Amino acid sequence: MWIASQWRIIPHSFVVMLALVLMTTLASGKSGTQCWRSAEQARAAQVPAAPGAVPVTAAHAPIWKTITIGEYKGANAVRAAIDAAPCPIAMGDWADEILGRPAFPFSRAKLDIDLVVVSAAELGFGPDGASLRDIYARADTFGLDLCPAEVGPILRLNYLDQPIGEFLHVAMRPVATYGGELVDFTLGNGGSSLLLIGGDAQPDVAFTGAVRFVFMRARTDSVASGVVPNAGNALVKR
User: Is the CA virtual torsion 49, 55, 57, 59 positive or negative?
Assistant: First the structure.
């Protein structure tokens, strides 16, 4: 898996630039179905933003996708599902490592998760963006929660038509590798395969305003039933 081993060490900005270079053709999956949309199809499907758009709130941020966690019991089951997916998925070394960590949190029961996608700019930061700590703190004030870590691989399995060149950063509590690095998930489409990669999730790592994050919007029924898929939004402090 040459391509998978490279993603963990390539800076985020270079990954995005490389993805844009690779936006040339559509690939077909193992089942012969179209696995992702072209850039033109993705733009055509977008809803234009309202003039003078303001930062999102939990009450107004639209649900982008709803997925179910708790269907796969452990890392090997997730890896088998990725290998059997109808579209090619490459998993980076860091992503694969944290998925298999004993501390990786898998839900014991099935739980529906509502997901929202917002950029750092839509959270009120300028083009230069902010640190991961500040982005998560700002999202918290708008009622957006960090996703359970399991959302990363499960969303990858459920988002096979990701547009070429798109990268989404999963807002989550980082998981430590065996070497102690704090790692989170990013979903991308580099043009030759769908990607599930791990990246630096230190609280001080900076992201530009254009980077888009996947947050969770808590359901009232989950709170009422006492099911708390993610306890708090605070980053691990080091």
Answer: negative
What pTM was estimated for this model as a whole?
Answer: 0.76
Query: For residue range 181-236, what is the model confidence (pLDDT) as tens digits?
Result: 999 999 999 888 899 999 999 999 999 999 999 999 987 655 433 344 444 444 43
Give pLDDT, residue 218. 84
Q: Are 155 and 169 in contact (CB under 8 A)?
A: no
Q: Are 164 and 23 in contact (CB under 8 A)?
A: yes
Which region, left, alpha or beta, applies to residue 100 given φ > 0 means left and ψ of -120 to 50 means alpha? alpha
Please state, in angstroms and rounded to a whole number, the distance separating the CA atoms of residues 226 and 208. Answer: 36
Greatest Cα pair distance in the chain: 48
**Residues 39-63 pLDDT 10s:** 555 555 444 444 445 556 555 779 9
Under a CB-based contact definition with an 8 Å cutoff, are residues 144 and 135 in contact?
A: no
Mean pLDDT of the chain: 79
Q: Give the angle 208-15-67 at the CA atoms, nearest 5°.
A: 80
- Locate all alpha helices (DSSP H) within the chain, ordered by sequence: 2-7, 12-21, 39-45, 75-83, 93-99, 132-141, 151-158, 220-224
Contact 154, 95 (CB under 8 A): no
What is the torsional sign of CA 118, 119, 125, 129? positive
